[in-house]
Every structure is written in structure tokens, then in C-alpha cells.
Amino acid sequence: MDKIHEIRVEEVHDHGEGKLFYRVYMEVNETIKIIGESQTKPELVRYVSEVY
Asked: What confidence tens digit (pLDDT) does each residue in 26-36 have?
């Protein structure tokens, strides 16, 4: 089973092309995988689930 260590969102300023975008990526089993890129700022929400 894969182990996800963290998920991150970073704001990227591309000064060469004059672009601003957001990159979402995660660290899985000590490798980084880019999930996607967006020009819209993502809304970050934290959910806590309880297992009964």
C-alpha cells in the first residue's frame, strides 16, 4: 500500500512568461507526484473524520 507523506499547494510565479499558477503535488513513497496545475487559487479545507 502506498504511503502519502504530505500533499502541498505552491504558488508559482513564472517571470519568463509572466504567468501565475498553482501547483498541487504529493509525496508518495518518497517520490513527488504532481497532481495538477491551476490558474484558480484552490480553497484549502481540513476535514477530520472519526471512525466508529
From this structure: 999 889 999 99
